[in-house]
Write a structure and sequence with these properties.
The chain folds into four domains: 1-151, Orthogonal Prism (Agglutinin, subunit A), CATH 2.90.10; 156-286, no CATH class; 290-429, no CATH class; 525-746, Transferase(Phosphotransferase) domain 1 (Transferase(Phosphotransferase), domain 1), CATH 1.10.510. The radius of gyration is 43 Å and the shape is flat. By secondary structure, the protein is α+β, with helices and mostly antiparallel strands. It is found in: Membrane. This is Receptor-like serine/threonine-protein kinase. Pfam families: B_lectin (PF01453), DUF3403 (PF11883), PAN_2 (PF08276), Pkinase (PF00069), S_locus_glycop (PF00954). Its EC number is 2.7.11.1.
Length: 751
């Protein structure tokens, strides 16, 4: 080869590369795409080039795949049956308007085989994923020399046609890959069957495995889920030139494809950006009733029945023994043969997938009455139905001989009429009328019984209300909490004593202002001696122990405070108000929340700051209560003339300075059992320690309170804070400073 020839070839190659770079979605005559080069659709959605299957093999295929999203998902393959064995492949556009794929020996291994004459031909990859051969800038699809949409692989993209061109004989069908790593044609095809009235079918070789049922103007009869929706729109075209199904997008942002898998499953897949993956939107073969002719002839399949196959009315199993062994393939036979002399009638079926239409005929102009008459006059006609139900019903669809592959839907099926002997039609009509009468009688009797029952129940409730009202007139119904204030809870437990007005007047000195409830030192209004206070402490501890350990579900109260402890006449405490309580499983120890609710002054640090609550949160609440009962002071709003510590900080300081006697409420005076009081203070400080791991459980506290042994030395309490004098009157819904890091915390007080 001389230098001039070499230079010409080099320049041609450079020009070819430059032209590809300037028009990245197309190539023209004498341009080429070599292995490793690609062209991309204008919007960047699809890419054309060479790929390997399996990924690490030497088998190379020319194909189109998704580029913008779902990178690498192949939508179309050219040389499915003849892969290249190396990277020598080249794609070219010829003067005749053909696309040719050449191997290293310059042999054509695939061609677009266009038969139209070409002028200035070029190949362009459209944003739809369609590879088209066209003349110059002519973008009219009717004038395309060739397009990949007419020769689909296993994928149906929006805008593609699945069906036949009646004039040219072009049959657009999907064919599965042999396997996920082998693009060659597999065993399954998905096509529009033109025999009888057209319907879509999946075939394995020459055997039908699934069918859609005929198009009824709204959807395919076997696809009740094909309803109008804001994502997809469907269309079925059937005229003298072509018959095909197509779908398109209402919402163009959706990325979807219809895929025939190597195992024969037909799935609609949608790309999800959030997960960066495909998800199954719908599957054609939903269950066993979608297996073609599972129940044989003149039988229906209902997936909700057991057994799922049943003979149609007026039919019995052809082979009873096999049928009883759940081999339904033999189908059913008529009880009574057809007369064929106008002595027959029709039985209506509703909500079904229409039978196989490959043995059907149709007439677009007939109405349903004319369709019935034609079927009666034709001896071999076995059923009829409307051809189109989109506008109330039109056209005539007739079946001949066997009725096969009928499915019973619970809703959205279609009506059709099965031909039967007149005597059987009358018998079924009479039976249906009797059933309807029995149904009306049964419903009427049920309504009467329900009315009588309602009247009796109403009289019973009215009587109970009157009885309860009389009791309430005789007795008071208010309970009292630990702080001496009334609760709004009605008494439901009749074992608790009731207080009449005279008792309340005596207890309050005729409602003296000195005994007013709700003042700062509310604990003292109860004037409890120490033994009663110690009983209360023990009672609350045992109540919490039951909630934490002995109850079927472990319960965390989260708002244990003086207001939520009810006392009976002998000062036995009852824990109340479980409005914000939470239950735990036996294997749960703690949980967290983003919404902290409770009462400032009782909440543990980990709950107030981080929203973490556990049994140790209730332990902290309980210990605040213990220190309040011992001191007669509330933690929230506590004030001392010598410092600004809260009650916990005050108790800790006195304990560390051996001045704990100063914490004891002076009103308990001589009733004080000093060892019990000191043990209660020690237990209280142990259970308000900052770390929840340092706090004992309720079972340990019950033992500590009831024993006389030595107790552990408590560590510094949580919320050992200093407050200013204005904080005492602040609402718990306002911000309160925490001295640990000077941040602001917001607490919501419970009801």
């Amino acid at each position: 080869m001389d230098a001039l020839t070499t230079l010409v070839i080099l320049l041609s190659y450079v020009v070819s590369i430059l032209r590809i770079c300037s028009a990245v979605d197309s190539i023209t005559v004498n341009q080429m795409i070599q292995d490793g080069e690609t062209i991309t659709s204008a919007g960047g959605s699809f890419e054309l080039g060479f790929f390997s299957r399996p990924a690490n093999s030497n088998k190379r295929y020319l194909g189109i795949w998704y580029k913008k999203v779902a990178t690498g998902t192949v939508a179309w393959v050219a040389n499915r049956e003849l892969p290249l064995n190396d990277t020598s492949g080249v794609l070219k556009v010829t003067d005749q308007g053909k696309l040719v794929l050449l191997n290293g020996a310059n042999t054509i291994i695939w061609s677009s085989n266009s038969s139209r004459s070409a002028q200035n031909p070029n190949a362009q990859l459209l944003e739809s994923g369609n590879l088209v051969m066209k003349n110059g800038n002519d973008s009219d699809p009717e004038n395309f020399l060739w397009q990949s949409f007419d020769h689909p692989s296993s994928t149906l993209l929006p805008g593609m046609k699945l069906g036949r061109n009646i004039i040219t004989g072009l049959d657009r069908r999907l064919s599965s890959w042999k396997s996920t790593d082998d693009p060659s044609r597999g065993n399954f095809t998905y096509r529009l069957d033109p025999n009888g009235f057209p319907q879509l079918i999946v075939m394995q070789g020459s055997d039908v495995t699934f069918r859609s049922g005929p198009w009824n103007g709204l959807r395919f009869s076997g696809f009740p889920e094909m309803r109008p929706n804001p994502v997809f729109k469907y269309d079925f075209v059937f005229n003298e030139k072509e018959m095909y199904f197509t779908f398109d997008l209402v919402n163009s942002s959706v990325i979807t494809r219809l895929e025939l898998n190597p195992n024969g499953d037909l799935q609609r897949l949608v790309w999800i950006d959030r997960t960066q993956g495909w998800t199954v939107y719908a599957t054609a073969q939903k269950d066993d009733c979608d297996i073609y002719a599972l129940c044989g002839g003149y039988a229906t399949c209902n997936i909700n029945d057991s057994p799922r196959c049943d003979c149609m009315k007026g039919f019995v199993p052809k082979f009873p023994d096999e049928w009883n062994r759940m081999d339904w393939s033999g189908g059913c036979d008529r009880n009574i043969a057809l007369n064929c002399q106008n002595g027959d009638g029709f039985l209506k079926y509703s909500g079904i997938k229409l039978p196989d239409t490959r043995n059907s005929e149709f007439n677009r102009s007939m109405n349903l009455k004319e369709c019935e008459s034609l079927c009666l006059r034709t001896c071999s006609c076995t059923a009829y139905s409307n051809l189109d139900i989109s506008r109330g019903g039109s056209g005539c669809l007739l079946w001949f001989d066997n009725l096969t592959d009928i499915r019973d839907f619970t809703e959205d099926g279609q009506e059709f009429y099965v031909r039967m002997a007149a005597s059987e039609v009358d018998a079924f009509a009479s039976s249906s009328k009797r059933k309807k009468q029995r149904w009306v009688i049964s419903i009427s009797a049920s309504i009467v019984a329900l009315i009588l029952l309602s009247l009796l129940l109403g009289l019973y409730i009215l009587k109970k209300k009157k009885k309860k009202k009389k009791k309430l007139k005789r007795k008071g119904t208010m309970l009292y909490n630990l702080e001496g204030s009334q609760t709004n809870e009605r008494q439901e437990d009749l074992d608790l004593p009731l207080f009449d007005l005279t008792t309340i007047c005596n207890a309050t000195n005729n409602f003296s202002i000195d005994n007013k409830l709700g003042q700062e030192d509310q604990m003292r209004s109860m004037t409890l001696d120490w033994p009663k206070r110690f009983v209360i402490i023990n009672g609350i501890a045992r109540g919490l122990l039951y909630l934490h350990q002995d109850s079927r579900l472990r319960i965390i109260h989260r708002d244990l405070k003086a207001n939520n402890i009810l006392l009976d006449s002998v000062m036995n405490p009852k824990i109340s108000d479980f409005g914000i309580a939470r239950s735990f499983g036996s294997d749960e120890t703690k949980a967290s929340t983003n919404r902290v609710v409770g009462t400032y002054g009782y909440m543990s640090p980990e709950y107030a700051i981080h929203g973490v609550y556990s049994i140790k949160s209730d332990v902290f609440n309980f210990s605040v209560l213990v220190l309040e009962i011992v001191s007669g002071k509330r933690n929230r709003g506590f004030r001392h003339p010598d410092h600004y510590l809260n009650l916990l900080g005050h108790a800790w300081t006195l304990y560390m300075e051996d001045r704990y006697l100063e914490l004891i409420d002076k009103s308990i005076g001589v009733t004080c059992n000093l060892p019990e009081v000191l043990r209660s203070i020690n237990v209280g400080l142990l259970c308000v320690q900052r770390s929840l791991d340092d706090r004992p459980s309720m079972s340990s506290m019950v033992q500590m309170l009831g024993s006389e042994g030595a107790l552990p030395q408590p560590k510094e309490p949580g919320f050992f804070t200093e407050t200013n004098i204005h904080e005492a009157n602040s609402s718990s819904s306002k911000h309160a400073p925490f001295s640990g890091n000077k941040s602001s915390l917001t607490f919501l007080e419970a009801r």
